[in-house]
Amino acid sequence: MSINTIADKVYSDKRITTDDALRLFNSNDIFEIGRMASYIAEKKNGKSAYFIHNRHINPTNICVNRCKFCAFSKDKGENGAYQLTLDEILAKAKSAEKGVTEFHIVGGLHPDLPFEFYLDMIKMLKRKFPDIHIQAFTAVEIDYFSNISGLSLNKTLSMLKEAGLGSLPGGGAEIFNTNIRNVICEEKISGKRWLEIMESAHSIGLRSNATMLYGHIEGYKDRVEHMNSLRELQDKTGGFQAFIPLPFHPKNTKIDRRLKETTGFDDLKTLAISRIFLDNFDHIKAFWIMLGEKMAQVSLNFGVDDIDGTVVEEKITHSAGATTSEEMTKEEIINLIRKAGKIPVERDTLYNVIKEYEYAGV
Ligand code: V47
Ligand code: SF4
């Protein structure tokens, strides 16, 4: 079926429907899909492609949820399980290069650590690094903190904000559909709860990202419905900054072993369609760690305007067979962006421009 009517909508700046998005997923016209996505990306961000000088820290991989797609988590006492002390977390933070502007901190749902541990961690990091933005805790962790502390969701979020939390990352969203969740992450909070937590965070001024884990057992319809829930919430709160589609990595997971990694074609299509569909999101991010450096670079011409950052240490995807490195230097990122014909722009977490680099063409 032709996608011309959808293109007409896009080029006259109209919102596309869920049926349109599904038609795009079922189309193989990747050039036209990319063209539409680029049109929107340029309208929103010109030729800029953003990156951030950041460092990831994962305080523990011990998790009571044990999602089937997760190769990072362990049971307490299991070989390879770890839990960093506050001193060890501080040492990781101190090892960050000069110029880092963000700590990205997520981890498992630890069975014994109290909420105070996380508050102390944020306070300690804020005391030692007052200028570094702390983006930490997925909605799943926030829900868990509220449970273990007995505090309301609002109070939990407010205390974290007061301690120095700057924003929330977009993890834990996976695919909102209940039947899919029951198979891939039965113990995890529902999609509805994930959205509720984000709404609550946005209402107290904490911005966040949103992710979608794709390429496992979901279908195109599930992806579209997932994005539709995000678009609806964004219409209400405007609190999301970036949408980040995450391609599933099957190695060492408990998801059907016959599943293979996503293909480059699907990755590009998913990123581009998300750019077209999520007209109320300012940014679409290609997390290069999961997509690969080269695919992330190509995606800059398929609607993506952000390729995340330097990262330094990455455990979640590398436990599941990622073949990318764990760190890119700023120079390497700038080179990738330039050679995609875009202007490299170093940003902080909230997309304030730190430095715009010279445009060098291709
Ligand atoms: O929620 C877990 C995903 C997420 C696998 O907000 C997997 O800027 C692929 O959300 N294969 C955590 N993905 C990471 C995340 C993130 C990363 C970078 C930037 C931001 C941001 C957020 O990783 C989890 C889950 O969806 N994940 N296991 C896997 N085997
Ligand atoms: Fe735990 Fe998150 Fe892994 Fe699920 S994805 S098992 S919640 S660490």
Q: Can you walk through the features of this model?
A:
By secondary structure, the protein is an alpha/beta fold. The protein has one domain (16-352): Aldolase class I (TIM Barrel). The chain has 14 helices and eleven strands. The chain has a four-stranded mixed sheet with strand order 9-1-10-11, covered by helices on one side. Strand 6, helix 10 (220-237) and strand 7 form a beta-alpha-beta unit. Helix 4 runs parallel beside helix 5 (115-128) and helix 6 (139-149) packs across helix 7. The two termini are 35 Å apart. The mean pLDDT is 96. It binds ligand V47 and iron/sulfur cluster. Iron/sulfur cluster (SF4) binds at residues 63, 65-67, 70, 72-73, 108-109, 140, 185, 188.
What's the helix and strand layout?
Elements: H1 4-11, H2 18-25, H3 30-45, E1 48-52, E2 54-57, H4 86-94, E3 102-105, H5 115-128, E4 133-136, H6 139-149, H7 153-163, E5 167-168, H8 178-184, H9 191-203, E6 207-214, H10 220-237, E7 240-247, H11 264-277, E8 283-284, H12 288-291, H13 293-299, E9 306-309, H14 330-338, E10 343-347, E11 353-356
Parallel strand pairs: 1-9, 1-10, 2-3, 3-4, 5-6, 6-7, 7-8
Antiparallel strand pairs: 10-11
Helix pairs in contact: 2-10, 2-11, 3-11, 4-5, 6-7, 6-9, 9-10
The structure holds ligand V47 and iron/sulfur cluster.
Strand order of the largest sheet: 9-1-10-11
DSSP strand (E) fraction?
A: 5-15%
Distance between the termini: 35 Å
**What's the CATH architecture?**
Alpha-Beta Barrel
Gross morphology: globular
Tally of DSSP β-strands: 11
Poorly predicted ranges (pLDDT <50, ≥5 residues)?
Answer: none
* CATH level 1 name: Alpha Beta
